Amino acid sequence: MSILLSPSVRTDHDSSQELTVSQLLLKQMVLNSVTAANTRRNYSKSLDDLFAFAAGRPLTRALLQEWKASMDSLAASTVNVKLAAARRLVSEARRNGLIGAEEASNLSDIPNVAQRGNRLGNWLTREQAKDLLRVPDRSTLKGKRDYAILALLVGCALRRRELAVLDIADVQQREGRWVIADLCGKGNRIRTVAVPLWVKAAIDAWLTEGELLEGRIFRSVAKNGTISRSSLSDWAVWSIVQQSAEEIGMKRLGAHDLRRTCAKLCRKSGGDLEQIKFLLGHSSIQTTERYLGSEQDISIAVNDNLGL
Asked: Which residues form the Tyr recombinase domain (predicted)?
């Protein structure tokens, strides 16, 4: 499939990166086929990398294998995302009649890099989580908002995208308690998330101070205290977590690590594994088990009571 024969034009987002007309067309087809903002960003960067690596050569199976081999210094998960973007490009070219089924099958048949072990990521202890929640200055409007964001991430295990699109109407009473009702998460799986009273109090404090009655819960706050009508982006949520984490000396702590923290603390508090699965919105109990990982407990070791 030769997609590198048209005169080159400059992209709007990066004047140093040149793509051909055909490349721009194919790239747009791919981006139009995905809805998640994070996936769009990853695919866009991956396709730019692929086009740059191709350097005017036609896209062939041999070239894709060479591209894959050139990424041996990257994490397996990163390489596999890039390969997924390439497969989506081939798929969209096939769907739009640019290549045949046999060629598409040949180009798509590039195996992923095997991932070994479980990536456990980061999480906070209970005391670290308390320290993090103390960071926002709750005497200010922005502080109330940031505290409510951290409270939802730690207390309800939300993904940052789920948090960013929350509406005021999503927080409802069900069976005598507050919940986030019918939350649509990853893979379009629907779940209902229980909201602890302390988290609900944090949300109420922000909404009351901001005089917000409908629409998105979380909005941008200007330096003069003005609240924007537009919702907060998921990357803004990431930034709030990063800045707060740095205040307590934690580096490389992301919003997803707070989701993991919630799951870990639930388990340490005796939470049932299946109920944690429902909270996280996982499709299987095995996913939750891998997510939580295992920890060695040497204070009460398994070989202390062998009866010998």
From this structure: 119-304
Beta carbons of 198 and 155 less than 8 angstroms apart: yes
Look up residue 156 and give its two tokens: 């309800």
Residue 158 sits in the same domain as residue 266: yes
User: Chain centroid to CA 291: how far?
Assistant: 14
Q: Residue 8: inside a domain, yes or no?
A: no
The pTM of this model reads 0.63
Mean pLDDT, residues 17-21 taken together: 65
On whether the CB atoms of residues 255 and 241 are closer than 8 A, the answer is yes
Query: CA 94, CA 230: separation in Å to the nearest integer?
Result: 38
The SS3 assignment for 44 reads: helix
Do 66 and 169 reside in the same domain of the chain? Answer: no
**4 confidence band (pLDDT: 50, 70, 90):** very low
Q: How far apart are CA 10 and CA 12, in angstroms?
A: 7
Q: Integer distance in angstroms from the first to the last C-alpha of the chain?
A: 70
Rg of the chain (C-alpha set) = 23
Q: Quick: pLDDT tens for 148-176.
A: 999 999 999 999 999 999 999 999 999 99
Quick one: CA dihedral 118, 122, 128, 129, positive or negative? Answer: negative
**CA–CA dist 34, 224 (Å, integer):** 37
Q: List phi, psi (to 5°) of 202.
A: -65, -40
- CATH number where 64 lies: 1.10.150
Residue 301's pLDDT is what?
60
d(Cα 236, Cα 215) in Å, to the nearest integer?
Answer: 18
Q: Which domain holds residue 74?
A: 21-108
